[in-house]
Amino acid sequence: MPEGPELHLASLFVNRVCEGVVFTGAVRKSMVSKSCDVAFTCDAYRIRAASRGKEVKLTLTPFKSHVNEGRLEPPVDIVFRFGMSGSFRFTSEDELPKHAHLSFYSNETPCGVLSFVDTRRFGSWQPNGSWQPNRGPCIMFEYKSFRKNVLLNLSNRAFDRPICEALLNQKYFNGIGNYLRAEILFRLNIPPFVQARTVFEGLELEDLAAGNITVKEELSDEKTSDRAGKNKAQPADLLRLCHTIPLEVVNMGEKGYDPEKSDYSNFKAWLQCYYVAGMKSTRDHNGRTMWFSGDAGPMAPKERKSTKAKKTAKKEGNHDFTAKKKVAGIRSKNTEEAKKREKREVASRKQKLKEEVEVTDTRDKTRRFPRRKTSGADTKVEQNRRSSRVKTVQPIG
DNA sequence: CGTCCACGTCTAC
DNA sequence: TAGACCTGGACGG
What we know:
alpha+beta; N-terminal domain of MutM-like DNA repair proteins; Helicase, Ruva Protein, domain 3; five-stranded antiparallel beta sheet; 28% helix; 17% strand; DNA-binding; hydrolase; cytoplasm; nucleus; class I DNA-(apurinic or apyrimidinic site) endonuclease activity
């Protein structure tokens, strides 16, 4: 689950399991990984982790007592991005997870192994690297500079985009991902496809309330404006929620992260909009699913994109193909034929879509987080809809 | 069996 | 602004 909070929880996880552990030898990379080797070998070193937005940095520090020919090796930083499926695990040597791509071995017996696990391999790492320079300040732990970086750059074309798309721009919102943008906009009742700039204009550079923020405060605005409609002068602050909402997830603790149990019940219960039954969803201009309720906003894509073309017959010689995939590849080997068929399919799909409403109500699109057992009228929508549960968060930075 | 979908970048027309 | 990059789970036929 890698957005900002998960990356941070991953760094906490690493620090917890590596506390007092002595690592030794070489850093080992899986055969299949295309990321670079980590040329680091040391008899005895420790591992610490830190996070910033959607990156985690591991620092490998040789112990002073272990000196290589009179010279102490300097620490090495490795910066990780998690892609769609990255995580860290700590296991015994013979329980190495299936998709472990970079592993650090302890000197214990039995040997403990910290590994970077990444099923889809969209993740990456950079040894001797530092935070990616074109990513902005961390939404969670560099709140002040994050806020300034947005408000001082509102003239940038990034803010011409709809707000939901701007929120995924890591140059300004380092740590926000697809579930966070949905949750954040939902809580403020901001239509996802209004121009980003208009949402931020008028916000104060300094957030005076920072450091003493509760979610209740955020929502109180909007409740009173319901009543009087006079509250326009003090709009709920989207930038602050970009900070506090991710911290709510962090404060749920490693339960939300724990790769061992993969028990997401806490997290699922926390979600109010993303993948929640009864919410609407549509594709944004980049083909990402935007979850929301109410108005889509004026910049909503008019016609949904035709679903991505099949990429079947592309990679014949790929050694990495499973037997199944090979069959599929061979079957559609005749590219001419495949293309024609594809055209026909796309055409008929477009035709269908024309007749559909632009934005679909997705009452049963709840798949990724497996179906909840429905318990009568106790629907999630009902529970969460503008729920005024108070949660205190501890903003840092 | 096949199709669609997923918590994210990247680079190449 | 498409695709490419991947694996695997849910679901439909």
